[in-house]
C-alpha cells in the first residue's frame, strides 16, 4: 500500500493540522483518509503526526508492505535513518512511527515534490480550517473520510484536543427478569427476556446503519461483559455487522454481594445504616460485594487497556449500567455523584471519545431512539 502524508502550521508554531491517506499500490484506489487539527504546533510535529496517522491507517487495513511518500525531507531522512533526530519534541512521534513501521514486512520512505502531495496537503489544510471554525467543503465520494477518518464535527475544533480519539460506543444490555422487578442485578447470570431480545435486535439494526463500523470488510472490535445478558446483546450487534464478540471481566456489573436479587426497598430494610452509607460514600462496599470506588478503578483500567489496544479506533462496548456510567464519568472528569444523577435506560447507547493527549468528549448519553 502507499501512504501519503503531510502536515502544516500557520505560524510555526501556530494552528496546525495533518492529513494522510492510504492507496492501493496496484490500482491507486483510495482506501482511507485521516485528518485532524493539532491545536498549536510546529510544521515538523504536524508532518510527523501525519506520518503516524497514515501508518496506523495502513496497519488497520492489514497492509504487509508500505511505501511512504512525503514532501518533508526532514521526516523522510530521519525515518530512513540517515539523519539523527535531535529535537526532543519529535523523538516520541518518531518512536511511535517506528513502532508502527515494525509491524509491516517492509516500509520504504520516499521524498516527493509538494505538487505530488496535494491530496494530503489539502486534507491538512481542511483540518486546520475546521479547527479554526472556517467552513470546509462537503465531502464527496472521493474525499469523504474512510476507515475512521476525521469527524468534521470533532470537538477538537474547539477544545484543542490533539490526535485521533478512541471512540467507545457504549451499549447497555436489554431487559432481564431482574430489571423488570428493579432488583439489584450484578454478578447473577440472568438471560434477556423476550422483550429484551427485541430491544437488542432494534439496537443491532441501528449499529448496522452506522458509518465506520465495517471498514473494507473488517468489523470494529466488539467487547462485552462475560455475563449472558451482555453477551446476548453483543452477539446481536456482531451478527448485524458480521463481527465477533470478545469478553472482558473488567466490564462486569458491580458485585452487590448479599443484596443481589433484592429490591432497593428490601436492601434498605435489611441493612438500613449500611445501605444509606453505601449510597452516600462511594468507598463503602455492599455486604460481601464491591464499592463504587472499586468499580470505577476497575473500569478505569479497562478504559486504559482499550485505548492502548485500539488507539484511534472505534470500539463497541457492551456492559451494564455502572460500568457505562463510570466510562462516561471518566469522559466528563466528574465526581461520583454522577452515578446517582445519571439515568441510563436498558439497551441505551452512549458515546465517549478519549484523545491521546488526555482530553475526552462525551458525544451522546442514553439514546434510545432506536427502540420500537
What does this protein structure show overall?
The chain has 372 residues and is of the alpha/beta class. The chain has two domains: 158 residues, Nucleotidyltransferase, domain 5, CATH 3.30.420; 202 residues, Phosphoglycerate mutase-like (Rossmann fold, 3-Layer(aba) Sandwich), CATH 3.40.50. The strands form three sheets. It has a six-stranded mixed β-sheet with strand order 10-9-11-6-12-13, sandwiched between helices. A hairpin with a 5-residue loop joins strand 12 and strand 13. The longest helix has 18 residues. It is elongated and about 75 Å long. About 4% of the residues have low confidence.
Proportion of beta-strand residues = 15-25%
Q: Tell me, rounded to a whole number, the average pLDDT.
A: 90
Which CATH class of the largest domain is shown? Alpha Beta
Computed over alpha carbons, the radius of gyration is: 23 Å
What is the straight-line distance between the termini?
44 Å
The total beta strand count reads 13
Overall tally of domains? 2
